[in-house]
């Protein structure tokens, strides 16, 4: 009989932010089923019935909360951080409120920055021990473009893209593999949405984005996946 093939992420330990529902939850479940041990954090502690996924409350805009999450994941042997937590507020420029700006940037930008900050020393330590590390940032296809009504959201995604590319440059010296996942229209709870509405039937599903993450993390060691852009076929072509 041929030998049984190991799951693609067997032995891996992966920390995920914003994992209570939508894309984050789909990522956590797929990576768990692909053999990884998953440490999942979110504002409301995630619940994964019947799955051996470690969960914790996490406020990515609070440095103490992020530090505690990183410590828990690192103690478990984390080799990967997936920054997924994100929110959006939309509307014309002259309707923007300062509190909306702060809420979006605190979650999307500060949250990405803080989580990356507290995992980076561990990633360097792993390299010194001859071990690989990975950072995946879930941004958006608007991290490199704009649209009417999306000033705050698009600006935050441009900032996340800058953080991602900076992490890639700074991590190159210790072989950190950094990937930006840039989804287009996705049928999730994002911005108050309710998944499953007929008009979103042809949008990406959370599982589509999760599969992009798995593709990046399961690549051979000699491969670095810098960026994945994924759109539903019904979305207008944008570059």
Order of helices and strands: EHEEHEHEHEEEHE
Instruction: Give the neighbour order of strands across the main sheet.
Output: 3-2-1-4-5-6-9
Q: Can you tell me the residue ranges where pLDDT is under 50 for at least 5 consecutive residues?
A: none
Q: What is the number of helical segments per DSSP (H or I, 4+ residues)?
A: 5
> How many angstroms does the end-to-end distance come to?
49 Å
Let me know the average pLDDT.
94
Plain-language structure description:
By secondary structure, the chain is an alpha/beta fold. The chain is 37% helix and 17% strand. Strand 1, helix 1 and strand 2 form a beta-alpha-beta unit.
What's the short version?
By secondary structure, the chain is α/β, with parallel strands linked by helices. It is 37% helix and 17% strand.
